[in-house]
Design goal:
Keywords: Cytoplasm. Helix content is about 25%, strand content about 30%. By secondary structure, the chain is α/β, with parallel strands linked by helices. Strands 4-3-7-5-6 form a five-stranded mixed β-sheet, with helices on both faces. Strand 1 and strand 2 form a beta hairpin.
Length: about 120
């Protein structure tokens, strides 16, 4: 199963192949959906937590790309990086436009998942 390609990203707007446009996304092999932060009580700090990435792993991602937002205001909880490392998951963290570029490159050859935040 391949991961959907991100067609475009700009402040507050992401377009993903096969999905309705939105602001933030969870993408994984075989699909994705809009990322609703309130599901896990996520905030900019401490940021992305282990429960935020679990859905990516459940759908078979062996590589994960985490975006920190356009201005890198979204943090990644160190427990999340430890969780992914313990599961043997290659992990990349980057500003959103760079994260999208890397994700699309990886999606061509690997089962990649990602969390993408299109503002701050």
């Amino acid at each position: 199963m391949t991961s959907p390609k991100i067609v475009s990203v700009e402040w507050g707007h992401i377009e993903v192949e096969g999905l309705e446009p939105g602001k933030d996304f969870k993408l994984y092999p075989g699909g994705g959906r809009e990322w609703n932060w309130s599901e896990t009580g996520m905030r900019h700090n401490p940021g992305i937590r282990p429960e935020d990435v679990e859905e990516l792993l459940t759908h078979g991602a062996t590589v994960v790309v985490l975006s920190r937002g356009m201005d890198r205001q979204l943090q990644v909880d160190p427990a999340t990086l430890d969780h992914l490392e313990a599961r043997g998951v290659e992990t990349h963290v980057a500003e959103t436009t760079l994260a999208v570029e890397l994700y699309n490159k990886l999606a061509a050859t690997q089962p990649v998942g990602g969390l993408f935040h299109s503002t701050c």
